[in-house]
């Protein structure tokens, strides 16, 4: 049943997924439904809603991410990954990207570790920690960070900055126009590179992806003339 739904949405997204990709996405959804019944990982119970809202939502960002990420094997952090969204669907499709899933709640990271083993996903790391601690341990190591339903934009940017490499990117998934949240962001510190409307097949929902980069202020170079 889910296969029909997936193919319906995915064909329209134009992502050209392999049979392995689809099988792994379905396995992930099955595992999420199973764990959800026991641990209440996500708020959505109905399987059809789950497919459309969680999975298609998570992979709809891919065309924009592919366009902006310049390196062939980018290292990306998903902040507040919860049950693995958007990182696990992204990792299933983009085997050449390395994703670090940062999540503070242990029962959620136990699920993420379980999925990593079950799907043999070698391109994800599950970090059972607060983002603030990872920022100290892995400062400046990520080409990009992403989050879905994590926190407000200003806080997300604040938490992202120490994790990013100098040319790093922030991908902020939003459900509606984020003008109000953007107005709270200091334009001296952050540049908005794009605010893209995402296409979600067969669903009357608004989804947007903001792409931002930090405006780094390096100390001036002092010449050492004698
Ligand atoms: C609303 S859930 C969203 C989960 C997932 N991204 C999704 O879209 O379904 C937010 C998650 O962020 C986690 N979280 C909140 N603050 C955090 C922090 N400072 N460090 C790590 N995880 C955090 C919570 O435990 C929760 O699982």
Name given to the CATH homologous superfamily of the domain at 57-214: Vaccinia Virus protein VP39
Radius of gyration: 18 Å
Measure the end-to-end span.
77 Å
As for the CATH topology of the domain at 57-214, it is: Rossmann fold
Uncertain stretches = none
Small molecules (ligands, ions, cofactors) in the structure: S-adenosylmethionine
Query: Could you say what the CATH architecture of the domain at 57-214 is?
Result: 3-Layer(aba) Sandwich
Helix content: 40-55%
Q: Please give the largest β-sheet.
A: 7 strands, mixed
CATH class group of the domain at 57-214 = Alpha Beta
The backbone outline, from C-alpha atoms, is globular
- What series of H and E elements makes up the topology? HHHHEHEHEHEHEHEE
Order of strands across the main sheet: 3-2-1-4-5-7-6
Structural class comes to: alpha/beta
Protein name: Ribosomal RNA small subunit methyltransferase G
GO molecular function, one term: rRNA (guanine-N7-)-methyltransferase activity
InterPro entries: rRNA_ssu_MeTfrase_G (IPR003682), SAM-dependent_MTases_sf (IPR029063)
Subcellular location: Cytoplasm
Write the layout of secondary structure elements.
Layout: H1 2-13, H2 19-39, H3 47-59, H4 62-68, E1 75-79, H5 87-93, E2 98-102, H6 106-118, E3 124-127, H7 131-137, E4 142-147, H8 153-160, E5 164-174, H9 179-183, E6 190-198, E7 207-214
Parallel strand pairs: 1-2, 1-4, 2-3, 4-5
Antiparallel strand pairs: 5-7, 6-7
Helix pairs in contact: 1-3, 2-5
Residues 42, 80-83, 85, 102-105, 108, 130-132, 148-150 line the site of S-adenosylmethionine.
């Amino acid at each position: 049943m889910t296969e029909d739904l997936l193919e319906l949405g995915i064909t329209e997204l134009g992502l050209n997924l392999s049979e392995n990709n689809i099988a792994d996405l379905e396995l992930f959804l099955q595992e999420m439904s199973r764990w959800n019944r026991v641990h209440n990982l996500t708020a959505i119970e109905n399987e059809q809603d789950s497919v459309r809202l969680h999975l298609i939502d998570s992979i709809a960002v891919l065309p924009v991410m592919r366009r902006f990420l310049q390196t062939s094997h980018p290292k990306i952090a998903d902040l507040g990954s919860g049950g693995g969204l958007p990182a696990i669907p992204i990792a299933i499709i983009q085997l050449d990207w390395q994703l670090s899933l940062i999540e503070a709640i242990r029962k959620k990271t136990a699920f993420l570790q379980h999925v990593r083993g079950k799907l043999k996903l070698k391109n994800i790391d599950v970090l059972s920690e607060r983002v603030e601690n990872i920022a100290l341990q892995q400062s400046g190591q990520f080409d990009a960070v992403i989050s879905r339903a994590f926190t407000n934009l200003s806080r997300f940017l604040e938490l992202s900055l120490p994790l990013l490499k100098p040319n790093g990117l922030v991908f902020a998934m939003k459900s509606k126009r984020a003008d109000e949240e953007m107005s709270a962001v200091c334009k001296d510190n952050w540049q908005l590179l794009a605010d893209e409307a995402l296409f979600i097949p067969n669903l009357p929902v608004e989804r947007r992806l903001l792409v931002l980069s930090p405006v780094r202020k390096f100390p001036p170079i002092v010449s050492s003339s004698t």
